[in-house]
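Lab notebook, bench 4. Still working through the backlog of constructs that have no structural model yet. Next entry is a single chain of 166 residues. Request: give me the structure tokens for it.
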Amino acid sequence: MIEIRTIRLFLRHIEPRYKQSLINLLDDESVASMMYNVPFPYKETDADWWIEAVKTKPYTLNVFLKNELIGGVSLTEQNTKIFELGYWIGKSYWGNGYATEACLGILKYIKNIESDVQVFAMVHPNNKASKKVLIKCGFIENGADVSIDTYSKERILRDRYTLKLS
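Model written out:
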């Protein structure tokens, strides 16, 4: 099991004992509305599914401050050496640099075990804070893609950011 330590955070797989914290953090419209793959309202069955699903995804981790769940970060391999970066931080933890720190932590980890990796991230056009996180991590804006938003069930344009790790 992967555990990544940054200056302030631990990135690791979620355990069932954090289910209620996961629900509390993701059942917030301001968080869910910026993520295209998280339902709102976020229910117990959603958390149960997530906790089970991530067991088979080595780079799908949650973000912990000390022993408190505050968010999530993942790298999902879409093709050989091409990963999608995803991340979220609970609203009460916004503005502290945790998203940037978590992203830098997982990117450093993958760079140390893989060579010539390309990473992309999709961002809601109105999510200025998330765009700042990606820029701080070295990403550059590289067009846009359309996706189906789980929250609104509509097709939505997402800004695309890319990063090459060599």
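Notes after review: The chain has one domain: 3-165. The first strand starts at residue 3 and ends at 5. Flag for follow-up if needed.
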